[in-house]
Amino acid sequence: MASKFTDLEIDCADPRALARFWCAVLDYEVRDDRDDVVTIGSPLVPEGRDRPGPVPPTLTFARVPEGKTVKNRLHIDVNPTDREQDEEVRRLLDLGARHADVGQGEVSWVVLLDPEGHEFCVLAGRHP
At 4, is the pLDDT very low, low, confident or very high (cuts 50, 70, 90)? Predict the structure, then answer.
């Protein structure tokens, strides 16, 4: 039997604020909010890790004392499901994201930073 990807842990300065941003990006909801750790997940698959087969991963934001200092070695890619890429980029910028240049050159995706500076990509293809 293989493992399945169920959770992604993200270090940050303000777990609640970053959780609000990513809930708005992914249409997720807060699953757990304790002390300095907030977990969000899909409202469509509340059973998460207990569900057989693939599941949308939860994101867990944990407060850490140090700030981000270098480019992420792992990042999230998002796909717009109900609008084109440029419309989704505008929506994410309105939520608090910022454009980023990580040396990507001319590519089909758009690199953004979340409010705490974590890189993520908005892909060109829509996947409902």
Answer: confident
